Amino acid sequence: MKITNYELRITNFILLVGLLLSSVFCLPSSVAAQSDGSQQNVIGRAGTFAITNARIVTVSGAVIENGTVLIQDGKIAAVGANVSVPGNAERIDGKGLSVYPGMIDAGTNMGLAEITLGANATMDLIESGDMNANAKAITGINPHSSHINVTRVNGITTVLSYPAGGVISGQAAVINLWGATQNEMAVVPTFGLVINFPRIATFSGFGQPQLEFSEAVKRRDQRLEDLKKVFKDAESYGRIRDAYAKDKTLPAPKTDLKLEAMVPYVRGEKPVIFTAERERDIRGVIKFIEETKVKGIIVGGQEAWKAGDGLKRNNIAVIYTNIYNLPVRDDDSYDYLFEAPSKLQQAGVKFAIATGDGGGEVRDLPYHAGLAGAYGLSKDDALKSVTLYPAQILGIADRLGSIEQGKIANIVVTDGDLLEPRTNIKYLFINGRLLPLTSRHTELYEQFKDRK
């Protein structure tokens, strides 16, 4: 078929417009999050350090108004008002400064998502298919993500990074925000199995008619049955595998990587992380946990306090990620989501505050906790919600979350309250290494600050 000049010009015009629009829409993301790895490649300095004459907020104990924190071999060697400082220690005068444990964000996609629009190669967040228990976040994390340095220079030193997509997304990892490789970053490389708990959703897609509620319930129930079947299959697979290990005369089980990955979770050896927001879905998670006897944690938890009785009864912790979100219903009060952590505490539910962000806004974690502290939580509990409480939920409180002798030296030194936006970070240690307080943001500031 012959194409006329007019048709050719129209085609070229459409292509040109498409390119211009894609450039416009992609520009903000690429400018905000492009990464050359330069900041993540700085390794800081190891050594023996003594932060002296400082106010030490231990979190797990009393505040030491004038004391010393000694850092040696990557650990907190001593802390107190009368600490003997070795002669080889590099002294940091902490007069007028406060020392805190590094903050922990237990709800992120850090290192898995870089530029969400226009650069697919920087996204390793979602696997194809619905059941991907064998997918491990730790293998996909980019140690050189520009988000890492922007986050850690604001006092966040550890995060839980988890995959998304499907019903079973994969396995989350607890990482420190320092290291040139995933192994160097890893605190708990395979912490928990992430499940997007099936929910009732009447939205069926843009341009599509809304589902009837009964049909939405039917679809939810089918996805839930599929999930239960996978759990039963994993239990059976584990039993068959164990039987073969004891008796090699039995038929060898066919290897199934997805079921293999689920075995420690269905047996309650490791926690299962359920994403859920609304009360009815959270109560569905509670029922599922009661039936399967797994260890459960909820991420999201917008209405978790409404199901506080069941959460407390089953020892289910909540990683709350809704401080920056808007209330769902038109008649909800403006502070509806700000007050939720204090309501969880009143209900006796274990909780932590997290950003729920892919990376770019994880740096705002202290301000999430600060808002919760202004709407019901005490000042001490607001601080614990991003330090000791997430460490306890993630099972790393013996290593992180407070300033105690023997713990990993993830330390932040500030000129004010850690949760205040006006506070500046003066010194930062991760794994006992003194790190430079530089990031892509500080570089841009230095580059443009004198322009008029």
Short summary:
The protein has 452 residues and is an alpha/beta fold.
What is the topology?
Elements: H1 5-33, E1 49-56, E2 64-72, E3 75-80, E4 90-93, E5 98-101, E6 103-108, H2 137-140, H3 146-152, E7 156-161, E8 168-176, H4 182-185, E9 186-196, H5 213-246, H6 257-266, E10 271-276, H7 279-292, E11 295-300, H8 308-313, E12 317-320, H9 340-346, E13 351-353, H10 365-374, H11 379-384, H12 388-393, E14 411-414, E15 425-430, E16 433-434, H13 440-448
Parallel strand pairs: 1-4, 1-5, 6-7, 9-10, 10-11, 11-12, 12-13
Antiparallel strand pairs: 1-2, 2-3, 5-14, 7-8, 8-9, 14-15, 15-16
Helix pairs in contact: 5-6
Could you describe the 3D structure shown?
By secondary structure, the protein is an alpha/beta fold. The chain has two domains: 37-101 and 402-452, Roll (Urease, subunit C, domain 1); 103-400, TIM Barrel. It is built from 13 helices and 16 strands. The protein has helices at residues 5-33, 137-140, 146-152, 182-185, 213-246, 257-266, 279-292, 308-313, 340-346, 365-374, 379-384, 388-393, 440-448, and strands at 49-56, 64-72, 75-80, 90-93, 98-101, 103-108, 156-161, 168-176, 186-196, 271-276, 295-300, 317-320, 351-353, 411-414, 425-430, 433-434. Strands 1, 2, 3, 4, 5, 14, 15 and 16 form an eight-stranded mixed beta sheet that branches. An eight-stranded mixed beta sheet has the order 6-7-8-9-10-11-12-13. Strand 10 (271-276), helix 7 (279-292) and strand 11 (295-300) form a beta-alpha-beta unit. Helix 5 crosses helix 6 (257-266). The longest helix is centred in the middle third of the chain and has 34 residues, at 213-246. The protein is globular, with a radius of gyration of 24 Å. It starts with a helix and ends with a helix.
